[in-house]
Design brief:
Layout lengths: L8 H25 L4 E7 L2 E8 L2 E2 L12 H9 L1
Antiparallel strand pairs: 1-2, 2-3
């Protein structure tokens, strides 16, 4: 059984409200502190360049990683 089956309607609404506020605050904190690895794709001179960053640092091994199986595209991505 779910814990929500025993709550009266007011408690259920209050619980949902608190859960929403907690989730929103947590997401905002993580986004502003850059705590999670974030994938990014930018276009540079017509070539999509992908990379990941965390704590405002680019992870070098992630730059153009999606092209590593195709040497010509990887070269085009990394030479520019």
């Amino acid at each position: 059984m779910s814990e929500y089956e025993f709550l009266d309607p007011v408690s259920l609404v209050f619980s949902a409200y608190l859960n929403t506020v907690q989730s929103t605050v947590s997401n905002h904190f993580n986004e502003t502190r850059n705590l999670e690895v974030r994938p990014v794709v930018v276009e540079y001179e017509g070539v999509p360049v992908s990379y990941q960053h965390q704590l405002w640092r680019v992870r070098p091994e992630s730059v153009c990683a999606n092209y590593q199986q195709n040497i010509s595209k990887f070269s085009e991505c990394t030479v520019k």
